[in-house]
Design goal:
single chain; alpha+beta; Arc Repressor Mutant, subunit A; four-stranded mixed β-sheet; four-stranded antiparallel β-sheet; 16 strands; 21% strand
Length: 330
């Protein structure tokens, strides 16, 4: 990549877009901005692309790489912004959305763009964009997310988990889909999940979701579980993994009576996600020299507090807490 120093015409484009707080522009807008011919504007655009100031999103549309982001700004997040210019309407989904939310540790060089528009696959930067066509009835559950100043449509956590369960091949496999569900469930809007399942009208998906939720031991509320069971009852027996009639794994988990589903997945593949969604409780002993605070046993002002580990990442490196009274938590 060349230096990011700018000529007079190049500066005119970058400064104008920056002052207008814009992150994208069309060829026609740049031509008008420069006040010259389209051919002259093309030369300026190509030079700005070589120097790392512009990146082509699609034909005739460009994204500005702001000065504060530097020449190496075309990372994963900006690739999402570029991929989002390929189709309209669209959303970034499946394992790409899961990676954005931190629901998976797998990072593949593929960006999944979900759209009802028929398009061919293409490359953006060093990533391959795979187009996933969904029917209109399944094209929902996404929202605009600010990604380094660019508005990108990304499926929300609930729809991301359901999409990955329905199409585990786009999530890294059934085992990874289970991990995504377990991690996402800790921040689920469970009512939204049930509403999504009802809107999708797929008893098979409800069965798969229900079994995997039990497998990861996610804290699904009782009323939501009843709604999912009612949805599941609308379909006949189904399966997770390849249909057993096509290929049955020797060490498959087998049939589950509750969800009436055959889990044709090797136990080893799902071993790492077993119980992963369960919120464990940790007991802390708070020792306080002031008996007036009360105790739950143990004497000397010892108070035992139950705490979910999901609140602990906000306190990295803290091994003890002190109060002005001289007490501490261990």
């Amino acid at each position: 990549m060349e230096t990011r120093s700018l000529s007079t015409q190049e500066s005119k484009v970058v400064l104008a877009l920056t002052e207008q707080h814009r992150r994208e522009a069309t060829l026609a807008e740049i031509v008008e901005l420069l006040g010259g011919s389209p051919k002259a504007a093309d030369h300026v655009i190509e030079s700005l692309r070589r120097k790392g100031w512009l990146e082509r999103a699609t034909w005739g549309e460009y994204l500005l790489i702001p000065p504060e982001q530097g020449p190496d700004a075309l990372g994963d997040s900006n690739l999402l912004a570029l991929a989002g210019r390929i189709a309209d309407p669209y959303y970034i989904g499946f394992s790409t959305a899961a990676s954005h939310y931190g629901l998976t540790t797998q990072h593949r060089n593929v960006i999944f763009v979900v759209t009802p528009v028929r398009l061919r696959a293409r490359e953006v930067g060093e990533a391959r964009v795979r187009i996933v066509n969904l029917s209109a009835s399944k094209f929902f559950g996404f929202e605009p997310v600010d990604v380094l100043g660019y508005k990108v449509m990304i499926s929300d956590r609930e729809k991301t988990a359901l999409d990955c369960i329905e199409r585990p091949d786009l999530a890294g496999g059934v085992g990874e889909a289970a991990t995504i569900l377990a991690t996402a469930s800790r921040r689920f809007d469970w009512t939204k999940v049930a509403n999504y399942l009802e809107r999708l009208e797929s008893g098979a998906l409800a069965r798969r979701f229900g079994w995997l939720t039990d497998h990861v031991k996610a804290d699904m509320p009782t009323d939501i579980r009843e709604r999912v069971l009612q949805l599941a009852a609308k379909s006949r027996k189904t399966w997770i993994g390849p249909p057993a009639r096509a290929r049955q794994f020797k060490d498959a988990i087998g049939y589950d009576e509750t969800w009436r589903i055959f889990v044709n997945v090797p136990r080893e593949e799902l071993l790492g996600s077993a119980g992963l969604g369960h919120r464990k409780t940790i007991t802390f002993a708070i020792n306080c020299p002031m008996p007036s605070l009360g105790t739950t046993g143990g004497g000397n002002g010892s108070i035992f507090i139950l705490c979910s580990p999901c609140c602990m990442p906000s306190m990295p490196g803290i091994s003890s807490i002190s109060w002005p009274c001289g007490g501490s938590a261990v």
